[in-house]
Amino acid sequence: MNGFLIYAGKRFLQFLFVVITGITLAFLIAHFSPVDPVEQTVSLLTSFGSTDPQAVEILRQSLRELYGTGGPLLDQYFTFWGRVLTGDFGPSLSSFPTPVMTVIGRALPWTVGLLTLATIIAWIIGNLLGALAGYFRNSRLLKLAGIVIMALQPIPTYIIGLSLVILFGFIWPILPISDGAQVNLAPAFNWAFISSVIEHGILPALTLVLVGIGGWFISMRSLVSNIVTDDHVIYAELGGVRSSRIFSHYVARNAMLPQVTGLALSLGNVFGGAVIVEFVFNYPGIGKLLISGIYSGDYSLVLGVTTIAIIAVASAVFVIDIIYPLIDPRVKLG
Amino acid sequence: MKFPRFAVIALLSLAALPAYAQDFIAGIPRNETLIIQGTPQQNADWFNVWAPGGGGAANVNGLQQLTTDTLWFINPEGGPDAWQNALATEPPAYNADFTQMTVKLRNGIYWSDGVEFTSDDVVYTVKTQIDHPGMSWSAPFTVNVASVENPDPQTVVFHLKKPNSRFHTLFTVRWNAAWIMPKHVFEKAGDPLSFKNNPPVSLGAYVLQSYDKGGNWTIWKLRDDWQRTSIGMAAKEPPQVKYVVYRAAGNPEARVIEQRNHNLDVINDMAPEGMFAMMRDSKSVASWLKGFPFAHPDPTLPSVLLNTKKAPFDNKDVRWALALMIDIRAVALGSYRGAANLAALATPPTGSAPDDYYAPMQDWLTNFELDTGSRKIKPYDPNISAQIATMVRGQWGDQIPTDPKQLQRTFGFGWWKQDVQAAGELLQKAGFKKSGKQWLKPDGTPFTIRLQVEGDAIPTLARAGTVIAQQWSQNGIATKVDVAGPTNGQRLSTGDYEAAIYWSIETWGGHPDLSFFLDSYHSEFIKPLGQIQPPRNLQRWQDPRLDQIIAKNRSIAFDSPDVTKVGQDFLKLAVEEMPMIPLMAYNKFAPFDTTYWTNYPSAENPYSASGPNWSNIRYMVVGLKANPDAPKN
Fold first, then answer.
1. What would the pLDDT profile of B23-66 be if each residue is shown by its tens digit?
2. CA-to-CA distance for B277 and B273, rounded, in angstroms?
3. Is B264:B593 a contact under the CB 8 Å cutoff?
4. CA atoms of B272 and B252, how far apart (whole Å)
5. How many Å apart are CA B112 and CA A266, to the nearest integer?
6. Cα–Cα distance measured from residue B181 to residue B47, given in angstroms and rounded to the nearest whole number
7. Which chain A residues are within 8 Å of B260, Cβ to Cβ?
8. Residue numbers in B near A52 (CB within 8 A)
9. Strand, helix or coil for residue B588
10. Helix, strand, or coil here: B614?
11. CB count, 10 Å around CB of A314?
12. H or E segment at B204?
């Protein structure tokens, strides 16, 4: 037990180090961005109207005070940490004065729902096919599946998404290609809304699944290919154990451990959003928010999104580290 | 080992995802609904257009376009009725020295909650914004207004801090203007900067029906008492559009598909290729120009901006040399596939400008002489647009007009001939030398240029930059295209560029007065490099003759016949000095779907602006006619 506590303590310190370093880097990158949120707002307010240069200067000064973007960087850094610890990232500068957490709170459920579902589906299909392809090495059908998956693997997400848009939105227009749900449908726990969300999520989810399957398939197939030559598997085959049982109990289970780790890390990444997919399908999630925050110099928003993503990934790694000794006896404590 | 067949069936069943089509919009009839492209709203709950979070271009959800109102509008497309009295009954009345402006307001205008609009609202708007720095029009009111009073419910008198013959333009909509606040709402709201104003009371013909908290759509409904609004009073017939949906429709490809599926009636902007494909393939699409190039010219002037505070761009001979190295035909073909509306003058060739400036100045342009140091040349070619028309006629046939006047309106009036020899003479006059194929600056170092473009946000202008960079490079000035992306605006305003493809000139469109941009060109506003230059003199052009022209324009009334003469003086000076090289109008490709609605504005019937983010679009919305052949709901 003492050994486990020391191990957990070390891992926790590692977790803290990763979070502090990650958030500090995010803070510095955001603040050294050449895009100034005040100038972005000034530009928005003056780009189409008749502008009096004196008035523009007054507007600029007013916005600097309102946004609180002045002051030494170190002061801003400590203020920022104070906010992080209370879960408050201040006002979004591009949606002033709406709090960052309100803006993120609206987008987060869409992203988490879409990415969690797509990640789990891709994980199940990729691992199942990968395990089958590694075990039934002579199956033509599985070889064909492998070829298709390997062919999809290098295609950029944007191209896959756009292809699906053209296929199911234009050539065979049976699925919505934009938004998270039907226009003018109030969110409610009823079938009309739920079915609309499912329908609108099919193409973005399918894009993520097609993009995500490849990695799981390849890693699982190579894991299984190694395990099938292990002594215990050969011994079971010689002992006349049914191949379906060998596949499920002797091979797949042993190969699953690193894949479970991978799944946990992927689920941690859910909070970072799926920028490209959300852009292609105009999906109202975190990824799209992040992009607009970067473009508008809204570093409060960028920091809010990245901080949540950093904490989520670091937490996922920490949890995996903690539960690993309980499920894998090869991990040494201390 | 055999792969079990049941597994194949199981896998295939996973792929069989359920799909069934729903109506595009829930709960409202499609044939009473106009769907317009909007932008995603990060703060969808926010309907306060007077605070930074709800102002400016960020808010393309119908709020500014359908519910706000102010004193006057100018139709950027020009036409006989370009000036519109909105909340005011007549144009502004100034005293002799432009230190006082009196406004007469309409009777019988009501906010959507039944409260009457009066001069109290106007006075409250001005005073509240002066008291709250950071509100959208706080700064210009602070600079200009000494006091404001309302002797009766229909009269407002502004006392100005200094003479300003253009003060009324703060309340005159071209794209937007100072919108009048509902006093009865805001006076109970506390801090006007943090008040959401949700739901907004409307002074326009439409009110908020519902909105997506995720920010993808906002729906507006025609007011029952739409007649009690300024636009209702101006309407010749009852509005037929009952609902307006502003929706963010995703990337450009998705927008095209959405329109072809009749889920998006009005698109804001797309690539020329997409527009040409739509016009070729779809029977239900309408456009501003009936034939090629189908585009709508914005009153904005894409140019090659030259940073006049950086050598050698401070030398007008160098600037002219760069202009003469450009083959505008290749730029038009490379950027817009030939669909460019050329501009040799420093004003966009749109709205009333062709009649006010381009046509009257053709003789002056044709006879304009340039001293290259070796000889005098007449660089203007009035037939260059016709040459571009000939180039694209093979592809578009009868779509290309043959009438010279129509050609001028479609492709522009003319531009500078490419004259590399004259360009070389001008560079030599400026002390440059040629070493092999490379031009050397007077100090002996190679003359190279960083040509900044924004990038994907405006692909046509990025392409124009690439073509111009190629031409300069071919003629001995090694030019690199520098894609600035989201830093473009800041780099331009701090002067961190040498040359850039962007615009520093926008006009009213429907009025000859150039003060819209010209006033900010005065030398009193020039900042040193590194400091932020106020909009719009991004090239930091400074000239005592320019200051005189601006002073003259300030001293005459907005509607004075002298305005055009002063404008022409400015345009002549800009040709002589070439502080920026005007290229073309900002042609936008914005198709309309006529499946449900007809009578969209066009070059033949320019009764309104049609850009989704332009506040003038309200006149289009109430002017549309239901298509009798529309699918029944």
1. 678 889 999 999 999 988 878 888 999 987 554 445 689 999 99
2. 6
3. yes
4. 11
5. 50
6. 12
7. 170
8. 139-140, 143-144, 519-520
9. strand
10. coil
11. 21
12. none
